[in-house]
Design a protein that fits this description.
The protein is an alpha/beta fold. Helix content is 43%, strand content 14%. It binds pyridoxal-5'-phosphate (PLP).
């Protein structure tokens, strides 16, 4: 129940122990093509350039920035959390790229009016935002962003590491140009792959670069050639991880994307009702809570570290601590993929209730009963 990695479905585990094939084996190449087609369904895109990079979500972020940006360019980043700030840090390492930061408050999204103003004023090559900020539990809305980008020629780059496959993000409808994710969260595949989709508009902007993409390994054009029909060698594909991702994506399509998104909303609502019934304070702004990550403050007097450790030792249940200045005193609970189940929600609430009581915190009511009420509705 941490915000990633989430549990693996037995079919995904089975894929990891399938007989290994070569990365040029026709069987594997067939799976690669089917994986790309499934990714298009989950990203809700028709983008030809849709594939998975052999790296974690952070590598997807780096690829999304180093490909379009070159010396002399500007990027505007909406920064209201730990992972958006990482976008800022990556951009700041790029040679002669001006980084304009539009700050927001942790727990809320960045103000879209301010983002649009910054895009109109600075006319950047890229506007970067995080869809689901895993550090704060807030969801970024997209109103006006794509229009402002199209008006000024900017590319809209979106981090969907914590949301793809769990929270609605129709890439084409929202006008997103580069969107990247991580395999280990709402997709419920093992860590190690970063799904990414790139619009034709972004591919054209990358093709117009005056200088080569400074990272050979993360050059999206080279990955696109590997995943295209010619399968031109770039790296030895992590074959078993691709088999597992293929299986995880197949499960999503079998469940139905819409049903899966609704399942995440339902379990997030039950978890939140339960936490509030216990008397705990949720961190993210009520209007902007992302269903895949719930952030909750530890009550005064309770040790957030000791509670987290007891959950793991006694209940075999993992939740995460806060990040940055909230490293102490906050818990982050994932509602992600195969882990997003009623039994897990009830277990985390009941276990928290017991452990907190031991720490001298008197719960206001029954968390599990409040969650059950949501399920019954
Ligand atoms: C929103 C967001 N972006 C980027 C990352 C980085 O992903 P990874 O740890 O897979 O490199 C994470 C990881 O938690 C994340 O939640």
């Amino acid at each position: 129940m941490a915000p990633g990695p989430s549990n693996l479905h037995p079919r995904v585990i089975q894929a990891l122990i399938a007989p290994l094939t070569g990365h040029k084996d026709p069987y594997f190449l067939g799976i690669l093509e089917e994986t790309a087609a499934l990714l298009r369904q989950v990203f809700e895109t028709r983008n030809r350039a849709t594939f998975a990079l052999p790296t974690s979500g952070g590598g997807g972020m780096e690829a999304a920035l180093v490909n379009p940006l070159e010396p002399g360019d500007t990027i505007v980043v909406g920064d209201a959390g730990f992972f958006a700030h990482r976008m800022v840090e990556i951009a700041q390492r790029l040679h002669n790229v001006e980084v304009v930061v539009v700050c927001g408050k942790w727990g809320s999204p960045v103000d879209n009016t301010e983002l649009v103003e910054a895009v109109r004023k600075h006319r950047p090559k890229v506007l970067g935002v995080v869809h689901g900020e895993t550090s704060s539990g807030a969801e970024q809305p997209f109103d006006g962003l794509s229009d402002a980008c199209r008006e000024t020629g900017a590319l809209l780059v979106v981090d969907a590491v914590a949301t793809l496959g769990g929270v609605r993000l129709p890439v084409d409808e929202l006008g997103i140009d580069i969107c990247y994710s991580g395999s280990q969260k709402c997709l419920s595949a093992p860590p190690g792959l970063a799904p990414v989709t790139v619009s034709d508009r972004a591919l054209q902007a990358i093709a117009r670069r005056r200088t080569p993409v400074p990272s050979w390994y993360l050059d999206l054009g080279l990955h696109a050639r590997l995943w295209a029909a010619e399968h031109i060698y770039h790296h030895t594909s992590p074959v078993l991880n691709i088999f597992a991702l293929y299986e995880a994506l197949s499960l999503i399509v079998e469940e139905g994307l819409q049903r899966r998104l609704e399942r995440h909303c339902l379990h997030a609502a039950a978890l939140r009702a339960g936490l509030e019934a216990l008397g705990l304070e949720l961190f993210a702004h009520p209007a902007h809570r992302v269903s895949s990550v719930t952030t909750v403050l530890a009550p005064a007097g309770a040790s957030s570290t000791a509670v987290k450790a007891a959950l793991l030792e006694e209940f075999n249940l993992e939740i995460a601590a806060g990040l940055g200045e909230y490293a102490d005193g906050m818990w982050r609970i994932g509602i992600m993929g195969h882990s997003a189940q009623q039994a897990n929600v009830i277990l985390v609430l009941s276990a928290l209730e017991q452990i907190l009581q031991r720490q001298g915190f008197q719960p206001r009511g029954s968390g599990a009963a409040a969650a059950e009420a949501v399920y019954r509705d």
